[in-house]
Write a structure and sequence with these properties.
heterodimer; A: 278 residues; mainly alpha; MetI-like fold; 2 domains; 77% helix; B: 297 residues; 2 strands; globular; disordered N terminus
């Protein structure tokens, strides 16, 4: 019996060989450019160009050169500030809305919700000029407000909180009201703790999007001192001669925070991506 | 009875208050600007001193006569038509394989295929720019393998530059879409596959007759997302090829940015007309997709 299942299993594995080959090739292609980025950051530009793909000892030199060229710490600080604040404000505003739309829903609110969903079809490139004028007239260029205001309230996040609120136990809300809790207290004391997992997923995806955003920051951050990490590395490669070691070190700096989020919070990240579609 | 009613009214008011901040923000930050963009698209002049265009459709007639704009539309659609199907088919295939419980190291493979999503769009554009540089690694590999004898200027030739953008897009987004399909496949009972196997269906048959139909809602959603994203392609065009050589790889969003915030004169009216065109396209394509997806057979 056991021998039979064993034989069966090895037969199954043999049949899966093409699948394994496919997976190995795709995985290699997926990982290699990122491995190469890290190795290039430790090598001199000429060696990178010559095709050296093993780690070298030029990391410190590249670092010195990078810090001479660009204020990396300032850009990192900016990116952390903008993305961090945007994440906190966005998940607060959108979860409040998701809470309201699902647990207080009536015909009018459902109608409003469908209307707000239409905003998903409005491309950022179509609104950037009016938004730029708006931020400029409100003196919000080069500020964290200018950075995040257009991105705080998104149909995607509201939908995500709304969908996940379906599992929220409505009975305990009634019990809480009898105990004398106000509606906003129910939100803070009951909804927030129960919805922890959704908050985590929403937070991760918002942080990633905010950190990686490029077009809008490029429009609204007109001052070099306010530039973000993606803007900084884009500037590194705009010259005629590119120092590949320095450039890849900059790219590495820009990628480390999102990589950490990816590896530590991969489950939340995955849930964040697929969050609104259940 | 009367008391209970007033409590619900109070609750309803609280409910409205909860959605107020998000609603106001979407109205002010999305709906109002798109109306503004539409109005601005009928104006000309510098940003500080705009007046109604004469004739009123000036920006639109200019747009349809603008060779560079047409190039940018053609490029965007080329990326869309070539990249999206390849990427989605790859993603479904990967999801199908990784959903098979007999595959070992599933978690590891899944993480590796998904890994490109951890990089920002600017980051991966710069990585691909460096890899495909005239004196970059790809050229070195091709020559070491004696496939080519001299350096190819990938990013300096329009056709290869477009190919590099498409390859880069597939690299960055396949794993992302795979995650949706994996989530969709988890909703499909594994016994369906077992039954198909007993009925003698081979891999391709199960793929086309079970996986694809069952994933249809997910496929339509990823399709809409991909179309939406590709129509707004910007970071790659700017950072991978800088739209070059000679604007031959430029995308619509890139051209709109250049016309409004790039070097030279800011032409908000003209850029708004083009951006409104993108808005219409996104809307039409999403609508078609939803209609196609809605026909139940």
């Amino acid at each position: 019996m056991t021998e039979k299942t064993y034989k069966n299993r090895s037969m199954i594995q043999r049949r899966l060989i093409p699948s394994y080959i496919f997976l190995v090739i795709v995985s290699f292609i997926s990982v290699f450019p990122l491995y190469w980025m890290v190795s290039a950051a430790t090598n001199q530009s000429v060696d990178v160009a010559r095709g050296k793909i093993v780690f070298g000892g030029y990391l410190m030199e590249n670092m010195k050169r990078l810090l001479e060229l660009q204020d990396v710490w300032r850009a990192l600080r900016n990116s952390f500030l903008y993305a961090g604040v945007q994440t906190i404000v966005a998940i607060f505003v959108c979860s409040l809305a998701g809470f309201g739309f699902e647990l207080y829903h009536d015909k009018k609110k459902d109608l409003l919700f469908s209307f707000l969903l239409l905003a998903m079809m409005i491309p950022g490139v179509a609104t950037m000029i009016p938004l730029f004028k708006m931020m400029s007239s409100m003196k919000l260029l080069n500020t964290v407000w200018g950075f995040m205001l257009p991105a705080i309230s998104t149909p995607f996040l509201i939908m995500m909180f709304r969908q996940n609120s379906r599992n929220f136990p409505v009975d305990i809300m009634e019990a809480a009201r009898i105990d004398g809790l106000s509606e906003i207290q129910i939100y803070f004391q009951m909804y927030m703790p129960v919805m922890k997992a959704t908050y985590a997923a929403a937070g991760v995806i918002t942080f990633m999007n905010a950190w990686n955003s490029y077009l809008w920051p490029k429009v609204v951050m007109t001052d070099n001192r306010a530039q973000t990490m993606p803007m900084l590395i884009a500037n590194l490669s705009s010259g005629y001669t590119i120092d590949y070691g320095v450039l890849m070190l900059g790219v590495l700096f820009c990628s480390v925070p999102t990589m950490i989020v990816f590896f530590v919070l991969q489950k939340q990240f995955t849930e964040g991506i697929t969050g609104a579609v259940k | 009875m009367k008391k209970a009613k007033s409590v619900t009214a109070k609750q309803q008011r609280a409910g409205w208050l909860f959605l107020l901040p998000a609603t106001i923000l979407i109205l002010v930050m999305s709906f109002y600007p798109i109306v503004q963009a539409f109005i601005t698209s009928f104006k000309t002049g510098s940003s500080a001193n705009m007046k109604w265009a004469e004739p009123i459709f000036y920006n639109y007639t200019r747009m349809f006569a603008d060779k560079l704009f047409k190039t940018s539309v053609a490029n965007t659609f080329l990326y869309l038509i070539v990249e999206v199907p390849i990427m989605l088919i790859l993603a479904i295939l990967l999801a199908q394989i990784l959903n098979n419980k007999d595959i070992r190291f599933r978690g590891l493979f899944r993480t590796m295929v998904f890994l490109p999503c951890a990089t920002s769009l600017v980051s991966y554009s710069l990585i691909f720019k460096s890899l495909f540089a005239t004196q970059g690694l790809i050229n070195t590999i091709l020559q070491t393998l004696h496939i080519t004898s001299e350096n190819i200027n990938f990013l300096g030739t329009p056709s290869t530059a477009k190919a590099v953008i498409i390859i880069a897009l597939i690299w960055r987004w396949t794993g992302y879409n795979m995650v949706f399909y994996l989530a969709g496949l988890q909703g499909i009972e594994y016994s369906v596959y077992e039954a198909a196997k007993i009925d003698g269906a081979n891999g391709w048959k199960t793929f086309w007759h079970i996986t694809v139909p069952l994933l249809r809602p997910t496929i339509i959603m990823t399709f809409i997302m991909s179309i939406n994203g590709t129509l707004q392609l910007f970071d790659e065009s700017v950072n991978l090829t800088a739209g070059g050589p000679a604007n031959s790889t430029i995308t619509m969003s890139h051209y709109i940015y250049n016309s409004s915030f790039g070097t030279g004169v800011a032409n908000f009216g003209y850029a708004s007309a083009m951006s409104f065109f993108v808005f219409i396209l996104v809307g039409i394509l999403a609508f078609i997709n939803l209609k196609v997806g809605d026909t139940r057979d």
